[in-house]
Amino acid sequence: MFYALSWLQIQSSAQNYTRDSLNSFLYNYSFEKTPKPRTGKVYNVPLPLNLSGMEISVIRLRTRSLWRNGLNLSSIEIPPLILPRPFTKRVDIVYQNLGNLSSYYYNVQNYAFIAPVIGFLAYDSTNHGLVELKTGGNGNPIFVRFPNISFHGNVTRTCVRFDTNGTLEFSNVTEKSSCIARGQGHFSIVIPYEQKILEKKRKLKWWIIGIVAGVVGLILLGILAYKLFKRRKMRKMERQTERSEGLDTVWIGRSKMPSASGIRTQPVLENSYVP
User: Between residues 83 and 227, which one has the greater pLDDT?
Assistant: First the structure.
C-alpha cells in the first residue's frame, strides 16, 4: 500500500526533503497520481508548486520486456539483458530531472554543475521496495544523455554518478554530452569550480562589450538619421526655390550673387498743367 501524504506535507518546502526521502516521496506521489498504471505506458507526473522545475516520468514494465527490449525513457537509454536484483516480475522505473533544484540536493566539492542532475531508480511493483538495475561486465552500458548543455569553452568536463549508497563515481564525458553508467542512480556533468568562475567572467566581458557596441551603434544610427533628415530638408528647399520666380545673377568680385531685374517707375507730376 502506498502511504498517504497530507496536503500540508505536499506543500512543504523542498528543503524539508533529504535525497532518500525525496526519492521515496516522488515514487509514492507519482503512483498516487496514476493509481492504476498500464504496463508499458509512460506517465509524466505534474508535481506540487514547491517542486516546480523538476520533471518526473514513471513507467511500469514486465521484467521479461525489460530483458528483451531494454528501455528508452527521456534522457536514459537502458540496454537489453538487464534484470532487477532482487528479481521481481514487474518493475517500476522513475525518471527524475531535478532541474533548478539540482544543486540543492546534490553537490560535488570543488566542482560546479553545468547540467541538471538526472536520475532513474527502479522499484518492485509488488512491495514497492527499491531494487537494483545493473549491467553485466560484458553487457552494453547504460547511457545518460545531456542534450542541452549551455556551457562552452575549453574546459575539462567530467561525468559524476551519485550512487544510491551515497558514493560518487567519476568518468569521462562521451560524444554528444553523454555519460556511461553500469547501474542506476543520479548523474550530471561537472567542471572544476575555478573554470566556472573564469567562464562567468568571460561571459560578463562579452556582455559588457555587447552593451558598448550596442550604444555606439545607436549613436551612429542617430547621426546617420540626422544627416538624412537634413539632406532631405535641403533638397525640399531647393525644389521650392526652383519653382519660384527665377532671378538674374551678377558677379560681385569673385562671388556669384542673385539679382532681381526690375523696371524703375518713372516719376509723374500730379498735375501736368504748366502756367
Answer: 83
- Residue 6: φ, ψ to 5°: -70, 160
Residue-by-residue DSSP string for 110-133: TEEESS--EEEEEEETTT--EEEE
All three cell numbers of 8 = 500540508
pLDDT band with cut points at 50, 70 and 90 for residue 246:
low
In terms of phi and psi (left: phi > 0; alpha: psi -120 to 50; beta: otherwise), the region of 74 is: left
C-alpha triplet 148, 160, 106: angle, nearest 5°: 85
Residues in CB range of 67: below 8 A, 6 or more apart: 80, 81, 82, 83
Q: What is the pTM of this model?
A: 0.65
Q: What mean pLDDT, rounded, does the chain reach?
A: 80
- 10 Å Cβ neighbour count for 52? 12
List of residues 6+ apart from 45 with CB closer than 8 A: 29, 30, 33, 34, 56, 57, 58
Nearest to 188 by CA among 139, 134, 148: 148
Top-ranked range on mean pLDDT: pick from 66-75, 172-181, 192-201: 66-75
Question: Any idea what the Cα angle at residue 169 is, between residues 131 and 123, rounded to 5°?
Answer: 10
Q: Read out DSSP for 137-161?
A: TTSPPEEEE-TT----SS---EEEE
Distances (CA, A) of 120 to 62, 70, 138, 225: 17, 14, 22, 59
Those residues with Cβ within 8 angstroms of residue 216's Cβ, 6 or more apart along the chain or in another chain: none
Please indicate whether residue 178 or residue 241 has the higher confidence score (pLDDT). 178
Helix (H, G, I), strand (E, B) or coil at 135: coil
